[in-house]
Specification:
Helix 3 crosses helix 5 (63-97) and helix 6 (109-129) runs antiparallel to helix 7 (141-149). The model is unreliable at 192-201 (pLDDT under 50). The protein has a domain at 4-97 and 176-196. By secondary structure, it is an all-alpha fold. The chain has helices at 8-19, 25-30, 32-44, 47-55, 63-97, 109-129, 141-149, 151-198, 212-226. The chain has nine helices and no strands.
């Protein structure tokens, strides 16, 4: 699938990501509507790009169709794309700002790492002790301990990957819907052209029939001239 509307949706979501750090903690705490309002305000600055993208369709669509297409795409962004992005940002941003730790206070983050490291050691010791797990080397405790110490980093890595996948999926689904709407307008325009071409041409008006009396008079006059 090519770039829909010149990659407008992808660029819009990227601009949202660039501005997401501008959300205050108070706005995040206020909920989805406030977060969506923040990005709707940012979207207002991108309306000119949407108009330009729709304007590229003007050689094919009529002025009224272009206006209707713009309004429908604008509604899709406002009512679907922005709320969906706001939900993702609302879930991800607080975790990102807390550096993906479970505890809120920075002073307790070292304790969280040590706790996960100790938990890793305990899991490693259990794996070595358990007779039904074929691992008996004591050196296996070390990988489990390191894994526990790095658990916040692993959580960050997988959270970023999941968030990136969700954003890409949002862009793809929005592009597909825009392409469906755009194709519907193009097909409607083509159907109107076919109907116009199939309309029968107007026949020239028939000449009025001559008066019989006038025809007889002309025939008599022609006969006298012949004689």
């Amino acid at each position: 699938m090519g770039m829909v509307l010149g990659g407008f949706v992808d660029a819009l979501v990227q601009s949202f990501e660039n501005c997401r750090s501008g959300l205050t903690d108070e706005q995040l705490a206020a909920g989805e509507d406030t977060v969506a309002g923040f990005f709707l305000e940012r979207y207002e600055h991108e309306l000119a790009r949407l108009r330009e993208a729709v304007k590229l369709q003007e050689p094919v669509l009529t002025t009224e169709q272009s206006k209707s297409l713009y309004e429908e795409l604008d509604g899709l962004v406002r009512k679907v794309l922005v709320p969906a992005y706001a939900r993702l940002a609302l879930k991800f941003s607080p975790k990102e700002r807390n550096d993906f730790y479970l505890v809120k206070k920075e002073s307790l983050r070292a304790a969280e790492r040590i706790g996960f490291g100790a938990a890793g050691m305990a899991v490693g010791a259990f794996v070595i002790w358990a007779p039904f797990i074929p691992i008996w080397s004591k050196e296996w405790v070390l990988p489990f301990m390191v894994g526990g110490l790095l658990f916040p980093n692993l959580r960050r890595f997988f959270a970023l990957k999941r968030y990136e996948r969700q954003l890409n999926d949002l862009v793809s689904r929005t592009d597909r819907e825009i392409e469906r709407i755009n194709n519907a307008y193009l097909m409607a325009h083509d159907d109107a052209g076919v109907l116009e071409a199939a309309r029968p041409a107007e026949l020239p008006a028939a000449e009025p029939a001559a008066d019989p009396t006038e025809q007889a008079r002309r025939a008599a006059a022609a006969k006298k001239e012949t004689i």
